[in-house]
Amino acid sequence: MSQPTVGRIVHYTLNEGDVSLINSRTPQSYEGPTVRNHVQAGDTYPAIVVRVFDPSTTTANLQVLLDGNCTYWATSRTEGDGAGHWAWPPRV
Q1: Which three-class secondary structure state does DSSP give residue 4?
Q2: What stretch of H or E contains 76?
Q3: Span 43-91, pLDDT tens digits
Q4: Which member of 43, 56, 70, 77 has the greatest number of CB atoms within 10 A?
Q5: pLDDT by residue (tens digit) across 22-40?
Q6: Read out DSSP for 31-67?
Q7: What is the distance in angstroms between the CA of the first residue and the CA of the last residue of the chain?
């Protein structure tokens, strides 16, 4: 399994806490500087690794690219399956 490194793209799955923070900080809007589509727990988005803490635990900070013109900073996230974790994109 590869270790995360700065600049790599991974997939991040939102959890309920992420959705709550996203909605409180970037309301869904179709006017003004912030535009994004609806988010819900379980949605998966591309994310860029911006910092790696301990490669042996695959813990990283991520900038999650939401569907719109804003991002979400997911801190101290680990590799894994399901909400609140990041995973390598599948090879197709």
Answers
A1: coil
A2: strand 71-78
A3: 999 999 999 987 777 899 999 999 888 899 999 999 999 999 999 999 8
A4: 77
A5: 888 765 555 566 667 889 9
A6: SSS--B----TT-EEEEEEEEES-GGGTEEEEEEE-S
A7: 17
